[in-house]
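Usage

Read records sequentially. Each one opens with the input sequence:
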Amino acid sequence: MINRELIRIKIVQLTYAYYQNGNRNMDNAEKELLFSLSKAYDLYNYLLALIVAVTREARHRVEVVTARVKREGGEMPSSKFADNKFALQLEENKQLCDFIEAQKQTWEDDIEFVRKLLDQIEQSQIYQDYMASEEDSYDADRELWRKIYKVLIMDNGDLDALLEEKSLYWNDDKETVDTFVVKTIKRFDPRNQKNQELLPEYKDIEDKEFAQKLFRATILNGDQYQRYMSETSRNWDFSRLAYMDVVIMQIAIAEMLTFPGIPVSVTINEYVELAKLYSTPKSAGYINGMLDAIARYLNGTGKMLKPVPERHTRFEHH
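and closes with the structure output:
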C-alpha cells in the first residue's frame, strides 16, 4: 500500500524537519521515516474499520427499533443497510480483525462521530436510492460503500479534525490513503470470505529499500548535491530560493543518482508535483527548469549515466 508517491512525500517532510531540527541524528531520522510510513498503513486499516463501526451502529439502531415495535406495534425497520453483504464480509476479515485487536484506539472511543456519520449516510440520496432499490446483490452492496466512501468520507472536515487529534501524521496522509481504501473496496470478492487479502504494508521489499536508500542519500550527500545546484545555477538567483525548494531539489538529485532504473523525466515530474503541494506558487516552474539543467550537468560531467530527455517543457521558466 505504501507506494513511492507516499514515500517521496514523507521524505520531503522529514528532510525538511531534519534540517530544522538542531539535533541531527541520521539513525533517529530514519526510524522516524519508517514509523511515519507505518502510521499511514495504520490509517488505511483504521478507515476500513470505520465502515465496520458504522455498520455495527446501524445494526444497533435496527435492534432498538425492532424491540420498540415488538412492544408497541408499528412497522418493522429494514435491515438492508445493517446487513450489507460487503460490510459484513469486511467485519469478519481476518487481517482487519487482527489489526483492530492489536490497536489501543477503536471507533467506540469516538462513537458520537460514528453516529453523526451514520445520520449523514441515512440522509443522503445514495442511501435512499439503495434502500428503495429492489436489487439484492453483493455487487450492489459493495458499490453502495464505494459511493458512500467517495462522497461522505473522503471529503469530511469532522473526520479530518478527528484524525489530526489522533496522529500528527494522519492529516497529510489521508488523501493518499483514501485512494487505497477505495481500491480495496473494489477488490473485495465474496468468494474470499474472511480471508480476502487487504493491501500489504509495502508492495515489495524494494519499496521499503527505496525509502531508506533515498533518505540516506539525500542527507548524507546533501552538501555535495547543494554544490551541484549552485554550480548549475549561475544564471539563477540561488539565494532567493525558498528553503523547501532546496530540500525538494536535493531529494530529486539523490533519486537521479541513486536509482539508475528510474527515468530522469519521471523523477523531475514527481518533484515538480511535490513543489506544487509544499512550496511557493512559483516553485514548480523554477524547480522544473533547475532540475532539467542539473540533470544535463550531471550527465555532461559523467556523474550520472542515464539519458536526459529532450528539453523538459512542462513548465516555462520565467
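Summary fields computed downstream for this record:
- Confidence is low (pLDDT under 50) at residues 312-318.
- The longest helix spans residues 26-72.
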